[in-house]
Amino acid sequence: MIDIFPPFVIYIIAALIVPFIPAGRLRSTFMLVIPVVGAWMIWNTPTGLSAVVPFFGFDLTLMRVDKLATIFALVFSLAAFLANLYAWHLRDTMQQVAALLYAGSAIGAVFVGDLISLFFFWEGTAIASVFLIWARRTEGAFWTGMRYLIIQIGSGVILIAGVAMYYASTGSIGFEAMTLPMTSPITWGALEIGIWMIFLSFGIKCAFPLLHNWLQDAYPAATVTGTVVLSAFTTKLAVYALARGFAGTEILIYIGAIMTLFPIFYAVIENDLRRVLAYSLNNQLGFMVVGIGIGTELALNGTAAHAFAHILYKALLFMSVGAVLFRTGTAKGSELGGLYKTMPLTMIFCCVGAASISAFPLFSGFVTKSLIVSAASKEHYYIIWGILLFASAGVFHHSGIKIPYFAFFAHDSGKRPKEAPTHMLWAMGITAALCILVGVFPAPLYELLPYEVNYENYTTTHVITQLQLLMGSALAFTVLTVYKIYPPELKSVNLDFDWTYRRFLPAALRYISFLVSATFGMVTGAINAFAANMVHRLHHSHGPDGSRAASWPSGAMVLSIAALLGLALFVIFFS
Amino acid sequence: MADTAQVVEHTARTLRDHLPVLQVLVPFVTAPLIVLLGSRRLAWPLAFIASAVALVISFIMLMEVREGGMLTYTMGGWAPPLGIEYRVDAANAFVLLLISLIGTVVLPFAYASFRDEIKSRDHTLMYACWMLCFTGLLGMVATGDAFNVFVFLEISSLSTYVLVAMGADRDRRALTAAYDYLIMGTIGATFFVIGLGMLYMATGTLNMADMADRIADQGMNRTVRSGFAFIMVGMGLKVAMFPLHLWLPKAYTFAPSAVTVFLSATATKAALYVMMRFTFSVYNPDFAFATNTLEIIFIPLAVIAMFSASFVAVFQTNFKRMLAYSSIAQVGYMLLGVALLTDTGLTAAILHMFNHGLTKGLLFMGVGAYVLRANGSFYTQIAGLGRKMPITTGAVVIGGLSLIGVPGTAGFISKWILVEAALERAPEHAMFLAIAVAIVLSSLLAVVYVWRAFEVLYLSEPDPNSTATEAPLMMLIPMWILAGGCIWFGFSTELLHDTAVQAANGLLQGSQGMLVIPDQGGAH
Q1: Which residues in B lie closer than 8 A to residue A573 (C-beta atoms)?
Q2: Is residue B478 in some structural domain?
Q3: Would you say residue B364 lies in a domain?
Q4: Checking CA distances to B394, which of A79, A566, B441, B484 falls within 20 to 30 Å?
Q5: What is the C-alpha separation between B506 and B70, in angstroms, rounded?
């Protein structure tokens, strides 16, 4: 029986109540209260507790409280609070309900102890979140949402298929650490395939390389406030699931390393600043995935901490760019610039976010990312360590410099928008304060981490290494910009891997389908002709005017009797 | 035992003991009563009461013999084989129930339908003929005397010719249809009586049980064998076995609607019962010639009927005629079940007899309702009536589904068992596997011709000048009783199935022999 009240329930109840509260301050306040209550409940839930409900012969573990789950649940609550504050002005029931259900599903998912419940919340996040994209209510947003939904639901379907195979082989639905089989696929049985399918479904949601395109496709397409919500939950839920299920799986290190690298190049040439942030989100996920892959206590601490910090500063960046979009109607680097004059506070908050993501000392990214990087070096993954360093520099480049530079400085676009609305400033201000707080006083955060932390951040080496790195990167940017080598912000569409399935595959499919349909047409044509001929002949004999249906004269009928009698007598006498 | 029976019968006979003869006698007496009274107002109520009484009697008898055993009745106290004996066991009680049930249910429909289709001055005689036909069919089934079968066959046939000919009020072609049927029916009856003559010549008796005993005693000779051929062909004609079916489409198409309903649901079934009775209880399927006749002649003809008649049905443009051809195909299934010569096959045949009776009765009633409201049953005339006569058409849809054999309808059960029966014998010979496939394939043809009717009824545009309205309650109630039966027996299969199994077992055990000398019963 349930002896503790799962926190996700409160979000679902709230989502049911919200439509009945008149849109306005009352409802917005209600939206703010819910995450606070939820966080309070999570904070007061002792670790080690579990709640089990029977379901169709399975025991579903709705609550499994440990530190790994708690830290993700807390940061999700925090993100929900900040996003709701940022969205104070919102009067759209659909988005508000979706945001609550989305956050509730994500929080529910991190607490579950079995794979079937995980599947329910997995799909819950997918379905709830798509409404944040559809809330734009444009045709483009509809199709983007559709693509997003297909991929997310597909991930869930792969998950449940994998779970079914896993269950069939092990008889357990417990969501525990799994070992990813690395033997030749030919030797795989149901268990191996099942585990790989679960891994793949996590990977889709975590935006692994080549599985990542939904992220850059969907996040920039959501509403101003929706993107902030989206950036917090889905991918971090996947990070949590990987950390829970596949900690220490070596292949994740390489996957993560590639993830930190390739988005950098796309982020550099991308013009839409929200899409730049989406690429950089992908890159940050790479750090976490590497941490999971290393799988030591230090590395997992790093992953959890980095997820915590990342949710905050990524939300802050999306908020600031969102505020710009909210005021100017565009988030394209080529159309912005010079906004610092009229949006100084937003600019400051954006810079705090940029500094955090770039891991400036005294900002949150510094104290969290270094855990992962140190873990890599400590486990002697030097190449990986190098890649992570390079990626850090790249992050600074595209998120730390590019975002504030093109939005608020660069050439003056002539736009003179008002400062962001007060509630947005508050949301950004709180988030920025948290970023700095974590950066300066990491101890409380470290307290929350799954394992004990014996790590000293602010050593001379660390600080100097990091500053060198950042300065080098800044220098490069400056030089490139001064000599006009830096790729200018152009109105362009960048080809990413999604070209293969949005352009190449359809074209290939069209060609194949042409071949198949031509062949098929020939075959069916022949069959049809044969059938038509057959029906024609049948109609000739059996149709209303055919001999079989005709009314025969009595004499002919009698003849048939005689014939049958003769036949019967023949058979009878000769047997 | 016979002696005690003789003693008992003069001392105390209850009404219950008279049931086998009352079954036939009640409608038999009603027919002349209707004529003598000569009242148009009384004719229908009398007929209906007689049918209802017959239904009750048949139901009681079925309950008595459902678990095995039989009821016998010696006419006038004359002991068989000299006297006429009535014997009712599970097999004929089942058929009696079908006949009396259809007869009773259809009469209200007939009342509404006759008023529209038949000149009112003929109504009294119509009902008298109807009663005679009803008597004949019941008698054929109830009696245990071979010659008595012939007599009742003739009673039912002659009255049927009249009933069919009455369709001439609407379409003069009913006359030629009746004439053709008369010629063919008479030839069939003649063949049957020739066969009986041969048996009488060889055995010197007319009591079926006695005949069976004596055939078993003396073994077979050419006379007995030839008798089998004549009886099978004669009855095959009444059953409308392919290729002896040619009378059927015309007769069914041009007969008055209610007559078609009644005939399609009962006449061929009664003849089929006689065929089974002679095959199993007079002759014996252990005889090689009987087995060969069934397997070499009946099975191929049954399969051909299933396809050929179905194809014709597919191309028909008249709903009523389409259903007539479908009946020929369905008779193919029943004959196939008989010719498989197994328990399961016979069960399937008997069940299909009953289920098809319900189904076809229902469908032909639908036709009757369309004829009443749209003045015809050509597809052009009934186009779009699904929207104008939703209740009627709803019942027709149920009937159509049952005709196809959609799960959840009565038609499915019997077809399923038939397929099972064919598969049961598949290890013996691959031919039976092919037969099982043929059953399924021909059912697909049923999908085609039934769907075509549905399409016409629902998807075609109705005639803008049509003034068709919903059929009267007198028609709807009988239709929905049968529609309910089609569904009910599709789900609640035990009662029918158990009875059919009992009937099949009874038939397959062969003759029970004369009761006088129980020791010789079943000696073969």
Answers
A1: 222, 225, 289
A2: yes
A3: yes
A4: B441
A5: 10
Q: Other C-beta atoms within 10 Å of B440: how many?
A: 12
Determine whether B300 is exposed, middle or buried from the number of CB atoms within 10 Å of its CB (0-12, 13-18, 19+). Answer: middle
Cα–Cα distances in Å, from B422 out to A259, B284, B292, B336, B408? 65, 21, 17, 9, 22
User: Residue B103 falls within a domain, yes or no?
Assistant: no
* Most A CBs within 10 Å, among B180, B232, B233, to test the A interface: B233
Cα(A500)–Cα(A512) distance, integer angstroms: 16
**Could you list the residue range(s) of the whole structural domain that residue B466 is in?**
298-510
Looking at chain B, how many residues does it have?
Answer: 524
Task: List all residues of chain A from 518 to 547 with a beta carbon under 8 Å from chain B.
Answer: 538-539, 541-544, 546
Contact B234, B190 (CB under 8 A): yes
Centre a 10 Å sphere on the Cβ of residue B9 and count the other Cβ atoms it contains.
Answer: 14
Distance CA A262, CA A267 (A): 9
**Interface contact A559, partner B, CB < 8 A:** no
- Tell me if ipTM is over 0.90: no
Q: Print pLDDT tens along chain A (575 aa).
A: 345 678 888 898 898 888 888 888 888 888 888 899 888 888 887 777 677 777 777 788 888 888 888 899 999 999 999 999 999 888 888 888 999 999 999 999 999 888 988 998 999 999 898 998 888 888 888 888 888 888 888 898 899 899 988 988 888 888 888 888 887 777 788 888 889 999 999 999 988 888 888 888 888 888 888 888 888 888 899 999 999 999 888 899 999 998 888 888 888 788 888 888 888 888 889 999 999 999 888 889 989 999 999 999 999 999 998 988 888 888 887 788 888 888 888 888 999 988 888 888 888 888 888 888 888 888 888 888 888 888 888 888 777 788 888 888 877 777 788 888 888 899 999 999 999 988 888 888 888 888 887 777 777 777 887 888 788 878 877 887 777 666 665 556 666 677 666 677 778 878 887 788 788 888 888 888 888 888 888 888 887 777 777 777 778 888 888 898 899 888 888 87
Helices A67-86 and A422-440 pack at an angle, to 10 degrees, of: 150
Task: Please give the Cα distance from A35 to A20 (Å, whole number).
Answer: 19
CB A413 within 8 A of CB A330: no
Amino acid identity for residue A562 in this structure: A
Distance from CA of A169 to the nearest CA of B (A): 37
Q: How many CA atoms lie within 13 A of B40 on its CB side?
A: 9
The residue of chain A nearest to residue B226, with distances taken between CA atoms, is A569
The minimal CB distance from B316 to the residues A544, A564, A572 is found for A544
B246 and A538 within 8 Å at the Cβ level: the answer is: no
Continuous segment of H or E residues that includes residue A23 = none
- Cβ-defined contact of B187 to A564 (cutoff 8 Å): no
**Count: domains in chain B:** 1
> Which pTM was predicted?
0.58
Give the closest-approach CA distance of B305 to chain A in angstroms: 11
d(Cα B56, Cα A359) in Å, to the nearest integer?
Answer: 96
| Structural domain contains residue B168 | no
Judging contacts by C-beta atoms under 8 Å, the chain A residues touching residue B317 are 544
Residue A474 CA to residue A376 CA, distance in Å, equals: 25
